TrEMBL record:
Keyword Zinc-finger: yes
Family of the protein in this entry: Belongs to the ABC transporter superfamily. UvrA family.
Keywords: ATP-binding, Cytoplasm, DNA damage, DNA excision, DNA repair, DNA-binding, Excision nuclease, Metal-binding, Nucleotide-binding, Repeat, Zinc, Zinc-finger
PROSITE patterns: ABC_TRANSPORTER_1 (PS00211), ABC_TRANSPORTER_2 (PS50893)
Organism: Telluria mixta
Protein's cellular compartments: Cytoplasm
Domain ABC transporter, chain residue ranges per copy: 502-834
Keyword Zinc: yes
Protein name: UvrABC system protein A
Pfam families linked: UvrA_DNA-bind
Main location, first listed in the record: cytoplasm
Length: 844
């Protein structure tokens, strides 16, 4: 084989030191599919995103105006000596959590623009109506938006019920819960006192006239307020015309809620008032968001909003006859000018070509109107990828983060195809990936390792795939080359017998319709199926909702921090119930990849609780006792012991004029986070800041004699996190690392049993080696009498489960049924299951 490095140009990296990278040099080909592999935490992302992409972006931003620069989410300047031959880069990174901007499948893919053009130029207009511009078909423009709901499709209002949740309370007892809290709310109450309203009678016993005025009036009278006086005293003060404390202006509760909702810039205020609002479908447009003129224009018999709600697969089928010129030419159509037929055909053909790419990537079950915050990170990335494939860009490098995430093996072929098309168009592809199917298709592999964190950061191999076979230190090699002598083989195991069954009935949500399903208890279950078949709906929404409700715990939506989504209200709630007993399930725990905290104030040590023990040890030293330092003294979140200059953060924010702010080590404590007096206390010759700087491995050795500290540390080592530093902040941890920290925390309490653990694609971001470690941990949870249920795509992992539930056969409305269930060996034989053929290879 010809050396790809000489065939085309190449990218030359010298002295890369970002994060854990060990001053590495690297040469990789352009116009090729380069896959970065290695165990989690080895430094793949630091190389592909932190170094290569960050540098490409930095060079690009140097060429644009400072104003434009501010619009980018800029990455830090990478630690690297030199990079040559780097093309401009586009990153298609997985974004966890909700994207900040409100967008939809149609807007991200720009398909909505073409559809509007189609309606504007080639739609069927009612007789006498003038042609509309394309913008008139967008709910986001003044020309298009329904005047009653401003294009939202729903109207929001505040009612007595929503604003006064408990009408047995008096106004003084805050019956009007929607009013602002604290001083402002008290002020409104005092105004009512001045105006002679009764604030000490239960709300429901007040005259309707008074209740209506307080809630709904648009008047804003300004009256004297006598703060702190009783109603009786106020009356007298008014009569005597005493000088009031101040003049206060009243606002009705609804006015306050609606205005705050519309005008506030504070997300938490908005979220607060939303709790007191109700919404319903807009009566004017029936939720279709557009003006009547726009809705009266049809294509293929549908208005544009109705068409935006059909799955892409059906949309493509509807448009195809127009693209191919075979659509029936009805009377209206025949009357049209021939140019219009040409316009129809051209736009429809363009739409079909772009839709085909999306269908090929397994996105046919989505609709244009689906909002991006409701997509999984993998779906969003594939949507962006599909858009890029059609963009006709060339000469750029696409940097992707695990594009196979969320993909069933049956969908992976299409992904490889899309990548091949981008490459054929003259682009380079740098992909961080763990799926062996994808790695096998690489033109070039960069294997990073050998281990994670400080024990990684070296390039073990850089070259065509076959050469990796001879690299002894590579973990990837042992999974990739199954014929190698020391290849890792799937463990032989006998499935455990379920201890009981949890039966759900009448389940209806998204594409699940009146489904009945049984989950085995006391074993490990893998839920499989092509992407969009309904796995997450069943496990992460329905199961979590129903079991959560039965246990009185929060459901699926409870814990989302950005719970203020407008979409959420329109969400179809879970319909269904648990049939029969819960068989001793006492607790429900979701182990996901969400960050363990959003501020640098939480870290590994605080989250797992082991820092409490460490602080006690420091407080128990003779020196600390002498100075009367308690455990709180050793917390960087408490004023006593921390460095006050940085308030215990260890760094300070430096504002730059045109660039995003950067963090710099605190000049007072040099990053130690504590004040000098606290740092003077030593335990076995180390101060508290030294301990936070230790890796888990180091700390495990250091605290070997302290069971309460050593035990959680050994669990962290077992889940493969020995390389993390105790003080590493939550914001610097990857999703996979966060997940394993949660799991380690759970493993410490596993002894109790009776817990149901729910995981959604737990192996995302995990090298096969790490996935095996994860499995071993989950196995321990089951052995301790718990139940594990996970959505999973990796067949190696699924094959190791005790039980499987395969959902299908297809995606969206073509899915949502249980295709097969049973131990893996049995599911592997099931007919009609698209999972079975892939599973067979892992069951010998
Ligand atoms: P991989 O992509 O191979 O899983 P990463 O490149 O994400 O690995 O991480 C390599 C090492 O760098 C890990 O030890 C990780 O904890 C550390 N790391 C990652 N991001 C940061 C960061 N923002 N600051 C400091 N360390 C980081
Ligand atoms: P899987 O987990 O198997 O990939 P999902 O459960 O995510 O599948 O999706 C099943 C179906 O439900 C798909 O048609 C998907 O588009 C739809 N769906 C999922 N989440 C939502 C949502 N928040 N709003 C509307 N439709 C949704
Ligand atoms: Zn409307
Ligand atoms: Zn400081």
């Amino acid at each position: 084989m010809r050396d790809p490095l000489t065939k085309t140009g190449h990218v030359r990296v010298r002295g890369a030191r970002e994060h854990n990278l060990k001053n590495v040099d690297l040469d990789i080909p352009r116009d090729a599919l380069v896959v970065f592999t290695g165990v989690s935490g080895s430094g793949k992302s630091s190389l592909a995103f932190g170094t290569l992409y960050a540098e490409a972006q930095r060079r690009y931003l140097e060429s644009v105006s400072p104003y434009a620069r501010r619009l980018f989410h800029q990455m830090p300047v990478p630690e690297v000596d030199d990079i040559d031959g780097l093309p401009p880069a586009v990153a298609l990174q997985q974004q966890r959590g909700t994207p900040t901007t409100r967008s939809s499948v149609g807007s991200v893919s720009t398909l909505s623009n073409s559809l509007r053009m189609l309606y504007s130029r080639a739609g069927d207009y009612p007789p006498g109506q003038e042609l509309l511009y394309a913008e008139s078909f967008s709910p986001n423009t003044a020309e298009g938006a329904c005047p009653q709901c401003s294009g939202l499709g729903r109207v929001y209002d505040a009612t007595e019920q929503s604003m006064v949740p408990d009408d047995s309370l008096t106004i003084r007892e805050r019956a009007v819960a929607a009013w602002p809290p604290a001083w402002h709310g008290q002020n409104l109450r005092d105004i009512l006192v001045t105006m002679g309203y009764d604030v000490d009678t239960p709300w429901r016993d007040l005259p309707k006239k008074d209740r209506d005025w307080i809630l709904y009036t648009d008047e804003t009278p300004t009256v004297p307020v006598y703060a702190g006086l009783t109603p009786e005293e106020t009356r007298r003060a008014l009569k005597r015309k005493e000088t009031p404390s101040y003049q206060g202006t009243f606002s009705g509760a609804r006015r306050y809620v609606l205005q705050t909702f519309a005008n506030t810039e504070s997300a938490s205020m908005k979220k607060r008032v939303m709790r007191y609002m109700v919404s319903k479908e807009c009566p004017l447009c029936q939720g279709r968001r557009l003006r009547q003129e726009a809705l009266s224009v049809t294509f293929a018999g549908m208005d544009i909003m109705t068409l935006s709600r059909v799955p892409l697969e059906r949309l493509a089928a509807l448009l195809r006859p127009y693209a191919e010129g075979t659509a029936p030419k009805g009377k209206a159509r025949a009357d049209k000018h021939p140019e219009q037929l040409i316009v129809t055909q051209r736009i429809a053909a363009d739409l079909c070509a772009r839709l085909d790419t999306m269908l090929a990537l397994g996105l046919g079950y989505l609709a244009l109107e689906r909002s991006t915050p409701t997509l999984s990170p993998g779906e969003l990335q594939r949507l962006r990828l599909a858009t890029q494939v059609r963009s006709n860009l060339f000469g750029v490098v696409y940097v992707l983060d695990e594009p196979s995430a969320g993909l069933h093996p049956a969908d992976t072929e299409a992904l490889l195809d899309a990548l091949a098309r981008l490459k054929a168009a003259g682009n380079s592809l740098f992909v961080v990936e763990h799926a062996l199917d994808v790695i096998r298709h690489a033109d070039w592999i960069v294997d990073v390792g050998p281990q994670a964190g400080e024990k990684g950061g070296q390039i073990l191999y850089s070259g065509p795939p076959d050469g990796l076979r001879d690299v002894a230190g590579s973990h990837t090699r042992r999974y990739l080359f199954t014929d190698a002598q020391d290849a890792v083989r799937p463990p032989e195991r006998t499935p455990r017998e379920p201890a009981g069954w949890l039966r759900l009935e009448g389940v209806t949500r998204n594409n699940l319709h009146d489904l009945a399903v049984c989950f085995p208890l006391g074993v490990m279950t893998g839920v499989t199926g092509v992407s969009g078949s309904g796995k997450s709906t069943l496990v992460s929404q329905v199961l979590v909702d129903l079991v959560g409700a039965a246990l009185g715990q929060g459901g699926a939506d409870e814990e989302t921090e950005e719970g203020m989504d407008l979409e959420r209200e329109a969400d179809i709630p879970t319909v269904g119930h648990i049939a029969g007993p819960m068989h001793g399930i006492r607790r429900l725990v979701r182990v996901d990849q969400k960050p363990i905290g959003r501020t640098p104030r939480s870290n590994l040590a605080t989250y797992t609780g082991l820092f409490d023990q460490v602080r006690k040890l420091f407080a128990a030293t003779p020196a600390a006792k002498k100075r009367r330092y308690d455990a709180g003294r050793f917390s960087f979140n408490v004023a006593k012991g921390r460095c006050e200059h940085c308030a215990g953060e260890g760094f300070v924010m430096v504002e730059l004029l045109f660039l995003p702010s950067v963090y710099a080590p605190c000049p007072t404590c040099g990053g130690a986070r504590y004040n000098a007096d606290t740092l003077a206390i030593r335990y076995n010759d180390r101060n508290i800041a030294d301990v936070l700087g230790m890796t888990v491995d180091e700390a495990h050795a250091f605290f070997a004699d302290e069971e309460a500290v050593a035990r959680p540390l050994s669990v962290l080592r077992e889940v493969g996190l020995g390389y993390l530093r105790l003080g590493q902040s939550a914001t610097e941890l990857s999703g996979g690392e966060a997940q394993r920290i949660k799991l380690a925390t759970e493993l410490q309490r596993a002894g109790r049993g009776g817990t149901l653990y729910v995981l959604d694609e737990p192996t995302t971001g995990l090298h096969p080696l790490d996935a095996d470690r994860l499995l071993a941990q989950l196995d321990r949870l089951v052995e301790a009498g718990n139940t594990v249920i996970m959505v999973e795509h990796t067949m190696r992992v699924v094959a190791a489960c005790d039980w499987m539930i395969d959902i299908g056969p297809g995606a969206g409305e073509a899915g949502g049924k249980v295709m097969a269930e049973g131990p893996p060996a049995q599911v592997a034989k099931a007919r009609g299951s698209r999972t079975a053929p892939y599973l067979r290879r892992f069951l010998s």
